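Need the bound structure for calcium ion, inputs here:
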Amino acid sequence: MKILIVEDEFALADALRDRLTQENYDVDIASDGVSGCDRAMTGAYDIVIMDGMLPGKDGTEIIYEMRKAKVTTPVLMLTARSSLVDKLKGLDAGADDYMTKPFEVEELLARLRALIRRNYGSEDDVVRAGNLSLDRRNASLMNSDTRQTISLAGKEFKILEYFLENPGKALTREQISERIWGNADNVEYNNVEVYVSFIRKKIKFLKADVCIRAVRGVGYRLDVEAVNDKEATAKD
Ligand code: CA
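Answer from helper R.:
Posting the output first, comments after.
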């Protein structure tokens, strides 16, 4: 799970990052509204933790822009205790949840897990599509019918995890590249193609009923192949 923290209080942002990293989340920080907006708009994050008052552009404005551009990344908004108006504005703009400062980090973790469950169906160590299951703890990929397993290298793991979190949804090379390398240029686009081809070979090796299709002019999409789908479900 990749999380973006948009927060201009450095001490708070750093403390959150440290705690979230301990929980195995992958964390980036943006410390002003403009860079926060740029990053959030990529859609490359699973969750955004968004401060309300930010230099450059405020949190509600960023959320509003995200939703207007159909970026659906769940947002947990942080607001100052006094500003009920900001809170309501944030929820109106499309925030999914909010917490008032100061807050307990453990409560934030619980809210995050709830957001993940609501939006991604599970917060499990294992993410699945069809008969393919990826164990996040050791980056091992398994065909759950044959129980055959293969391990993934770091980038392959991160890219496939991203696809498995978004089954049936076309992901652009830009989104993938943002998510894995934190930026999107032509060099990274080429890398995406190379890694996708590695991942396809591993999926094929496992004879899984999942494939990563090229979507012309867009990027790639992970699909479960319908024919074997029933079989996989029946065995669950
Ligand atoms: Ca602030």
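Comments: The chain has two domains: 2-120, 126-233. Confidence is low (pLDDT under 50) at residues 228-236.
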